[in-house]
Amino acid sequence: MTDPSPDRHSSGARDDAPPSGAGWTWVLLAAAIMVPGIVIALGGVPLADPVRALAYGVAIVGAAFLLSWAAEVVQLDFSQGFALALLALIAILPEYVVDATYAYLAAQDPAYAGYAVANMTGANRLLIGIAWPMVIVIGWLRFRRATVILGTEHGLELIVLLAATVYAFTLPFRGEISLLDMAVLVSFFAFYIWRVARMPAEEPHLVGPARLIGSLAATPRRALVALLAIGSAVAILLVAKPFATALVATGTSLGIDEFLLVQWLAPLASEAPEFVVVALFAWRGAATAALGTLVSSKINQWTLLVAMLPLVYSVGVGAPTALPLDDRQRDEVLLTAAQSLFAVVLLLDLRLSLVGAGALFGLFMTQMVFPDTRGILTVVYIVLAAVVLLISRGSALRAFAWLRPARAAGSGESG
């Protein structure tokens, strides 16, 4: 993440005041809350499904926080564009592991194919419906800035996201996610990474535990980052499968729709740390960096997360095959694609206003409270996207400015 203000510090890990040692307390707390879930997973402790699901979910939250801090500090060793993409990728690693678990189990039980799609669509819609508006609202409450403006360098992300979104519309009509789809979506992500890796480096602005870790000397800093990343990844791998199955069993035992539980609760647990990190940045006045990181996260989820499903499913089956989509899953993917289209169109002029954020949040909450409105809301998203594109058809070309290297890219925020 970068500091959008013109003021730069001599070190990406330092600020005007020395980092607070309280950050170590948060690191230890995040590590500590992983322990019960790991112990239960390794020891096979006989507990009720809701209790096990809670313990595993809390462990994933703790691991995700550690991963997020490690990913932020990684920016000190890579170019800014590549580091932001890497940050977004690592931050949602728990989401990948949980969703991969459902896809793998689908080879033995077809019901899990629905849970894999539910988790993927829920993660994508939560990001746009909750996290994007959250950044705008925090900026308005804190600084009375009704609009967040992205720099032209973020146009690349939006065009890649638009391409992936347009392609995603084909999935429901074909009724499957195939290995060919995986190849196409991975190529989108590879192109994105190749382009951002060539962008100029900027010093990151670290906060909280990440800033404390980043203040260490290079060798101990890199060792600690590696330890946090590896330890968190191992913890997630240990609890991901039992969490996935316990969550489904919890829905059954409590009489809750397992599809909806997997769609919203699992992604919320794995993405909570990312929401906290971007909220902190927005609160500190770095709403541009926060929104830019969320756009990058959306690219990760809408390309690699979707692409992973047929690959893992094929591994579970033991032969190359496509992940089938039933009618409900087709509707979910179509709604997710429509929401993504509306969100990208809103940002094509490289700005997101309080009104646009309100529309994203309002439509998201409508389909959360009234899940049977999926078909209607899909049409609403598409119609609104067309209306916004028609109204802002001139300024929408700003997202393509990155194609002109000679033009200086700037960023900032206005109210």
Structural description of this entry:
By secondary structure, the chain is mainly alpha-helical. The chain has one domain: NCX, central ion-binding region (A middle domain of Talin 1), CATH 1.20.1420. Helices cover 71% and strands 3% of the residues. The strands form 2 sheets. It has a 3-stranded antiparallel beta sheet with strand order 4-1-5. It starts with 21 loop residues before the first helix and ends with a strand. The N terminus and C terminus are likely disordered.
Helices and strands in order:
Layout: H1 22-32, H2 35-43, H3 49-73, H4 80-91, H5 93-105, H6 111-143, E1 147-149, H7 155-168, H8 170-174, E2 176-177, H9 179-196, H10 208-214, H11 218-254, H12 258-283, H13 287-317, E3 323-324, H14 327-347, E4 351-353, H15 354-369, H16 374-391, E5 412-414
Antiparallel strand pairs: 1-4, 1-5, 2-3
Helix pairs in contact: 1-3, 1-10, 2-3, 2-11, 3-4, 3-10, 3-11, 3-12, 4-13, 5-6, 5-11, 5-12, 5-13, 6-12, 6-13, 6-14, 6-15, 7-9, 7-13, 7-14, 9-13, 11-12, 12-13, 14-16
